[in-house]
Every structure is written in C-alpha cells, then in structure tokens.
Design goal:
CATH architecture of chain A: Orthogonal Bundle
Radius of gyration of chain A: 20 Å
Largest sheet of chain A: 2 strands, antiparallel
Helix content of chain B: over 70%
Structural class of chain B: mainly alpha
CATH class of chain A: Mainly Alpha
Largest sheet of chain B: 2 strands, antiparallel
Number of strands of chain B: 2
Oligomer: heterodimer
Distance between the termini of chain A: 36 Å
Largest interface: A-B, 42 and 43 residues
Strand order of the largest sheet of chain A: 1-4
CATH topology of chain A: ABC transporter involved in vitamin B12 uptake, BtuC
C-alpha cells in the first residue's frame, strides 16, 4: 500500500488524541455522535479495502452490515444477559458466510455487471428481512440489552455505560485500521493492489486472482459485519433498511467523499458526512438537496476526495519552507 | 375461472413488462453507448409521474397533461446532461455512481419540496375508464390495455428509428464501437446529448402513463430504478432487444410471483437475475 506520509501520521495521532480526550469534556450528544461516526468509519474502511484497493466496486456492501446486526438481534436480542464472546463470533461467522456466497457468485463478473450483481444479491437479503415475519419484517427488531464483556467471572467492561462503549468502539476502530494497514503491507495486499492496477498481469505472474478477490471480499464483508454488530449493540434497534441499497450507496459516498484507497480517507468521509447530516437539517428542512449539491461539487472539484485536500494544504507550507531554507 | 385468473395475471405482467421496457431501454442505451451508469434514471420516471399529476390537475385532462409534460421532461434531460452527465464521460464508474446518486438525493428532495410527502393518485380519463368483461365476475380495465397498446406503438417506433434511420444507425454504431464512430466524423458528444434526453423522455413518459394505475409517492423512482437495472443487466447492456426480453421476463415473473408466492415475490426477481448472470455473465443478449 501507499506509504502513510508523516503529516498524515501526525494528523491521525492528533485525531486519536482528540478522540481520547473528548468524552471527558464533550457534551453527551456529541459523544453519541462520535460513536456513530466511528462505526460508520469502520464500515467505510471495510468498503475501501474492496473498492479502493481491490478495484471491486460493490453496491451491496450494506448487506453485510445488516447481517452483522441481525446476527445479534436474532440470536441474542431477547436475552437478558449474554456474552460478547458468543455474540460477536456468531455475527462475524454469519457475515463471513454470506460474503463467501455473494462473493463467489459476483467475482465471476466485472465492471458494471459486478456492481449490479452485488446490488441484486444484497437486495435479496434486504427483501428477505423486510418481508419475513420471523424477524420483525419491516418493523425491525429490538435488542433488549448490551453484551457483557467478562473474563471468567470478572467484568472487564460495562458497555451499558456510554463512555465505556465509546472507548470500546474507538479501540475497535484503531484495531481495524492497523489490521488493514498490516494486511495491505503483507504480500496479500501487494497482490490485491496489483489486481486493482492490472489483473491480467498479476494472473500471468501465476497468482490465482479469483481467490485473492474472494478473500478480499470476505474480509471486507466480515469487517462490515463487525460495524453492523456495533451499530445494533449501540442503538439496540435493527431495521431492514440497514441492508437496503440506499445504505450501500451512502457508504460508497462516505468512502469516495473522504478519498478512495487511503484508509484514513473513509474516516474523514465518515466525520464529514455525519456532521453534515447533523448540521444541515438545522438550516433547512430540505437539507438533502444541499447534501446532494455538496456531493456533486466534491465529484466535480475534488475527485480524489477530501483527503486529497490535505496533500494540497500540506504541500503549500512545505514548499514555502523549502524556498525559505534554500533562499 | 382458473384460466381467466391466469389470463388477467399474464396481461398485467405483460403491461408491467412494457412499462419496464420504456424505462429500461433508455437506461440500456445510456449504459451501452455512453458507458455511463445513471442511477438517477428512476428519478425521471418519478418526475414524469408527478408532472402528469400536476399538469392534469391544472388542465383537467391527462392527455393534455402528458402532451405538455413530455417536452418539459426532455428539456430537463438536456439540462442535466449538459450540466452534470457530460462531465462523467471520461470518468470511471465510481464517479458516475456517486454523482448520479447525489442527483437522486436532489430530485427526491425537490419532489418533496414541490409536491409534499403525501401520496397522490391520478384519475383514469373517462374515455378509458371502462372494463372488458372476461367472465361473469372478472373484468379487465381498458386503461391497462391502452397502456400496453401505447407501449407497443412506442416500441415499434423506437425499433424503426434505431434500425431504419440515420440517427438510429449512429446510435447502433456508437453502442458497438465508440472510438471508431468518432473517427468516422460523427459528433459523439451531440449524439450522447440526444440519447440521454430521449432516454429521460422515455422514462418520464412511462411514469406519466403509469400515473393512473400506480400511486405517486416520494421515492417511487427507486423501486423502478432497481428493477430496470435488473432488466438491463439480464438483457445485456446496450441491447434494446435484451431490454425488451428482460422486461418481459421480469414483468411477468414479478406479477406471478406476487400472486403465487406473495412473501417471496421480490426475492424471485433478484434470484432470477443472479441465476441468469451465473449462467451468462454478460446477460442474454450481449450488446451488438
């Protein structure tokens, strides 16, 4: 993967410091909002692995988010007490299985057909949950309580506490980010970025590209399931719209808005979109028009996303510095 | 009884298929010729329906409403193509998805702004409000037959334009090899503008004539968009023939799915698409 430059590293560390510090002073409402942002950031990073690094544009990624959420709702939603060590693996295994099935079918195609096939298969899951009476149908499901995080009989974390949940989500965000950096630096990452650049050539080097694409698809899907699990645990509520194509479109917007193929771009995109969605409705009732126009402007004027702005901002002072030093 | 029940379902399915064909044919041409994924295509269907509702309300006649609404829709298509879509020709699919997704947000909200959140209906014109008696208890509305008839006329007209006229020749040439067409001195940008505006016109027209049998509600464009994408992909991108066959398959199977397996109807359509793409990854009729 592309090396994360020094200014960006510094920026990420400052952001992490801010995130660690914020709950001690911030308003409860914004703590809640930041949890939301972090969950969306995890979801968006998982999609970035697929779209930005493997070159597979999926318009059905929300299916995995939703399956992760429903995995929690179906098996543990009515329980008064359950352990995260049981609930999280169930959600992750379910999403991984769904990703294997959807991925195995979709990666046979490419381009527009891949986009459409992921869309169609995700819609099948959406309609299944929307119409099935078993899991609440279009009313959705409630989750009565948050999972216990215990080690033996010792309670490690009390997720019922909003601040604990905040730090728990932040920890997962950091772990997912480092995990993705790790696999992208590993030979696996070299191969999938190679596939993104030129699949023919990678195949001619003797790599079974289909298997790598499937592996990338399953990893991305499972991480999206993790985000869905967190969302369901946080809000205590699931609706079929989690799986709908609007959600898939939205998360694609987050990734591209922030900057494709950067990993930190999707985090910036999540911050930008959630803040816009929080802030715009205060100005006008018809805020979606404004949001739509902002997205249009980003596509037209910042095709590489908001994170490319940072390069531009950092480049100017560093050039000034260079000229001064040389002069 | 049994037979006429199935006949009614079949007629409904065919009529739905025709409507899908109108929407999907524009979409497949924009896909095939311009290589642009237009997610906002369903919004034009919605806009057509609301324009018909609005103008019919003013003039008191659906026909007059439709006649006035068509030029408005085509003009809207022209403006959108020049302002936004024209920028996408040299961009990847990802930017197309993003920009047209933003257009959906804008159009959906504009619809709420202009016509509100309530769902509306348009009355069937008096001349076509009758029914044909099939058996003692079963009837079939004339308006649905009229819709099918109009779609057939337009389909034949489209076939004639595409197969027999110079414009159709350039469209076909553009669909099969864009660079070569350009090299032969065809103004491809102008062709794109025409194709896009006509595609918008077709989608909007489908919305207009469907207005009396479908209800108008916010976000109605989304459903038709997804179904038309399915039709286009099943038929093969860029193929009008494929769009027709795909529309009929989806139209008939979704109507039968709704009556025979109500709880699984929506899944049937997507399962069918997945099945066809596994069997033929490029769709039934690969673009000529």
């Amino acid at each position: 993967m592309q090396k994360i430059t020094k200014p960006v590293q510094l920026f990420l560390l400052i952001a992490l410091g801010f995130a660690l510090w914020f709950p001690s002073v911030g308003d409860e409402f914004y703590v809640e909002l930041l949890i939301n942002i972090m969950i969306i950031a995890i979801f968006a990073m998982s999609l970035d692995l697929l779209v930005g690094y493997t070159g597979l544009v999926s318009l059905g990624h929300a299916a995995f988010f939703g399956i992760g959420a429903y995995g929690l709702g179906i098996f543990f939603g009515e329980m008064n007490q359950y352990s995260i060590w049981a609930a999280l693996p169930v959600s992750l295994i379910l999403t991984a299985l769904a990703a294997v099935v959807i991925g195995w079918i979709s990666i046979r195609t490419s381009g527009i057909y891949f986009i459409m096939l992921t869309l169609a298969l995700a819609q099948m899951f959406y309609y299944y949950f929307f119409e099935s009476k078993l899991y609440g149908g279009d009313d959705g499901m409630f989750i009565s309580t948050k999972p216990d995080v215990n080690f033996g009989s010792i309670q490690l974390l009390d997720l019922g506490n909003e601040h604990t949940f905040y730090y728990f989500t932040l920890g997962i965000l950091v772990v997912v980010f480092l995990f993705l950096v790790m696999i992208l630096r590993a030979p696996f990452g070299q191969v999938i970025t190679g596939i993104c650049a030129n699949e023919q050539r990678v195949r001619s080097l003797g790599y079974a590209t289909q298997r790598y694409k499937l592996a990338s698809f399953v990893i991305a899907g499972t991480l999206a399931g993790l985000a869905g699990f967190l969302e369901a645990a946080h809000t205590g509520f699931i609706t079929p719209s989690y799986l709908g194509w609007h959600e898939s479109g939205n998360i694609l917007v987050v990734v591209i808005l922030g900057g494709l193929g950067t990993l930190y771009g999707p985090i910036i995109g999540a911050v930008a979109l959630v803040l816009l969605e929080d802030f715009l409705p205060d100005i006008t009732e018809h805020w979606k028009i404004v949001l739509g126009m902002i997205i249009v402007c980003v596509v037209l004027f910042l095709p590489n996303g908001i994170s490319s702005l940072s390069g531009k901002i950092f480049r100017i002072p560093s050039q000034i510095m260079k000229t001064i030093l040389r002069g | 009884m049994e037979f006429s029940f199935y006949l009614i379902q079949l007629l409904n399915g065919i009529q739905y298929g025709f409507l899908l064909f109108l929407v999907a044919s524009g979409l497949t041409l924009v896909f095939g010729i311009m290589d642009v994924i237009n997610l906002a295509h369903g919004s034009f269907y919605m806009i057509g329906a609301y324009l018909a509702f609005w103008l019919t309300g003013i003039f008191g006649s659906l026909f007059l409403g439709i006649v006035l609404a068509i030029p408005l829709a085509v003009a809207l298509g022209f403006v959108v193509e020049r302002l936004a879509i024209a920028y996408l020709y040299k961009k990847g699919h990802l930017h197309q998805v993003l920009l047209t997704y933003a257009l959906i947000l804008i159009f959906d909200e504009a619809q709420r702004f202009l016509w509100g959140n309530d769902s509306h209906g348009v009355d069937i014109p008096a001349a076509l409000s009758g029914s044909i008696t099939l058996t003692d208890i079963q009837v079939y509305p004339v308006y649905r037959l009229f819709v099918s008839f109009v779609c057939i006329v337009i389909g034949v007209g489209m076939f004639y334009v595409i197969q027999k006229t110079k414009l159709g020749m350039t469209i076909r040439a553009g669909a099969s090899n864009r660079q070569m067409t350009q090299a032969l001195g065809i103004n491809i940008e102008r062709l794109f503008t025409i194709v896009f505006s006509l595609g918008v016109g077709l989608a909007a027209f489908a919305g207009m004539i469907a207005a009396p049998i479908d209800s108008l509600y916010p976000g109605m464009g989304d459903n038709i968009l997804i179904i038309s994408l399915v039709v286009v992909v099943i038929g093969g991108i860029g193929s009008i023939k494929g769009a027709f066959v795909g529309a009929m398959i989806i139209g008939v199977s979704s109507i039968f799915g709704k009556t025979l397996f109500p709880s699984m109807a929506s899944i049937v359509v997507y399962a069918m698409m997945a099945g066809i793409l596994i069997w033929k990854p490029q769709g039934l009729f690969k673009s000529a």
